[in-house]
Specification:
Layout: H1 2-17, H2 22-37, H3 41-59, H4 64-76, H5 83-101, H6 106-122, H7 125-141, H8 147-164, H9 167-182, H10 195-212
Length: 214
């Protein structure tokens, strides 16, 4: 079977390269992804939990690779553990990343936004709006906030506000992202299709129609 063959390959990589070599770790991650795609999320999450436990034992709970393993486990969890467990674990990871990496490290902010997305997708949309709003308020209070982090937060907040039915406020952040995208200079041969710009224009027009329809 394909899974058995993959496990034998991982065993070979572990013996030859070591358990924490990037190629070995990537192979384990691909196996977990394959298991989910094949309809076996329970085994995938079990392997992800083992990954976290092994990294914690070998590297320590605060090692960035251990934190990354927890992040990988979270992405498998909704189909197995359910939203309450996912949200609780994501909150804990956000707190740990803030403590270890700093409150405005990109991984910390990514995790905090993930709390918002999980809340939104679980139906707790108002709480999700507050999470994104809090992140944005903190970023805007910095002397030199990261443009990338601001833009990621605008987009997350706009999606969540739209889900909440606040089309006028969502439009504000889509317009901000649209203005930033129009000023973005891409390397040659990148962004030839301008897909993000086109998506933002369609999104803006959709929000305008929704707002006008009220």
């Amino acid at each position: 079977m394909a899974g058995d063959k993959a496990e034998r390959g991982i065993e070979l990589l572990t013996r030859t390269l070591g358990p924490w070599h990037p190629d070995t770790a990537e192979a384990r991650a691909k196996l977990r992804f394959w298991l989910v795609e094949e309809g076996d999320p329970a085994t995938a999450i079990r392997l992800a939990q083992t990954e976290v436990a092994d990294r914690t034992a070998a590297l320590g709970a605060d090692h960035p690779d251990t934190l990354a393993a927890r992040w990988g486990m979270i992405h498998l969890a909704p189909k197995t553990l359910g939203w309450p467990a996912v949200i609780a674990e994501t909150r804990r990871l956000a707190e740990d990343r803030a403590r270890v990496l700093g409150p405005y490290h990109r991984d910390t902010l990514l995790t905090r936004r993930s709390v918002g997305y999980s809340l939104r997708d679980s139906g707790a949309v108002a709480e999700a709006v507050q999470v994104f709003t809090d992140v944005l308020t903190e970023l805007e209070a910095l002397e030199r906030p990261s443009d990338e982090q601001l833009r990621e937060t605008w987009v997350g907040l706009a999606y969540t506000l739209e889900r909440h039915g606040d089309f006028e406020r969502a439009l504000v952040y889509v317009e901000k992202e649209l203005a930033a995208e129009r000023c973005t200079i891409y390397p040659q041969d990148e962004n030839l299709g301008e897909y993000h710009l086109k998506m933002l224009l369609e999104w803006r027009d959709r929000l305008r129609r929704k707002g006008a329809g009220r």
